[in-house]
Amino acid sequence: MAIAAPSHTAIGSRALNSDFVLCENFAFRPANVDGFSHQTFEDGAAVTTVNFKGYTQTIPDPERRLFDFLTSKLNPTPTDENA
């Protein structure tokens, strides 16, 4: 499972760096995100795992709303895991 790492220099918005965001009943500061990943299970359940400074949070995310939000706002650096 690939983990995306945000590029904080590409955010370009002070509000995004300092304000909390609420997505899928999960409140966080995007500037504190170190990485994130999405995993879908055979039974149809899906979670997004978000890594912060020193801790990890797993959030139910069957429709990929949180994952897609993080991907669009944090401009992740592509991983070379498949290389």
User: Are there runs of 5+ residues with pLDDT below 50, and where?
Assistant: 8-17
> Averaging pLDDT over every residue, what do you get?
76
Please count the beta strands (DSSP E, at least 2 residues each). Answer: 7
Principal-axis shape: globular
Report helical residue fraction.
Answer: 10-25%
SSE run: EHEEEEEHE
Q: In whole angstroms, how far apart are the ends?
A: 13 Å
Gyration radius, in Å? 13 Å
Looking across the biggest beta sheet, what order are the strands in? 4-5-6
User: How much beta, percentage-wise?
Assistant: 35-45%
Q: Which secondary-structure class do the elements indicate?
A: alpha+beta
What features would you describe in this structure?
The protein has two helices and seven strands. It has helices at residues 14-18, 65-74; strands spanning 5-6, 21-23, 26-28, 33-40, 46-52, 55-60, 76-77. The strands form three sheets. Strands 4-5-6 form a three-stranded antiparallel beta sheet, covered by helices on one side. Strands 1-7 form a two-stranded antiparallel sheet. Strands 2-3 form a two-stranded antiparallel sheet. Residues 8-17 have low confidence and may be disordered.
Describe the SSE topology.
Blueprint: E1 5-6, H1 14-18, E2 21-23, E3 26-28, E4 33-40, E5 46-52, E6 55-60, H2 65-74, E7 76-77
Antiparallel strand pairs: 1-7, 2-3, 4-5, 5-6
